Amino acid sequence: MSESRNFSLRTAAIAAVAIAVLVVAFGVFTRVRAEQQLTTWTSAQSTPIVSVITPKATGTGDALTLPGNVQALNSAAIFARTTGYVRQWYVDIGDTVHTGQTLAVLDAPDLDPPAVPTCGPPRPTRILRKRRPRAGPHCSPRTRCRSR
Prior knowledge:
By secondary structure, the protein is mostly helical. It has one helix at residues 2-46, and strands at 85-89, 104-107.
């Protein structure tokens, strides 16, 4: 019986090794196949598929008007250096202006030269002489007067 038992143990051991080799071979085969499929799928995904069109102009070019407002980030108070009046406006709020364009004409009567009357001949100017101070209680005839 020992021979038959050894024979059955040998057969069982050989069968177990054969099954283990088949399981390992199946696992290695499936891993190699999965890696090949992953490599194929990755190379297919790395090439982008792009559809190209040529732009065409439309017949009407309607502008898109959106609501909105514009505000300044900073504001500064502006004060006049002299008094004056606006004689004439050349532009209004919202008009397009260019560099050097006159926006308004101002009258500044404080800066205008004074008007000289032109009626009649000019009057001669009168020249006044300085008089010597008289001698008084605080002045002597030989010295100049000093203020008190």
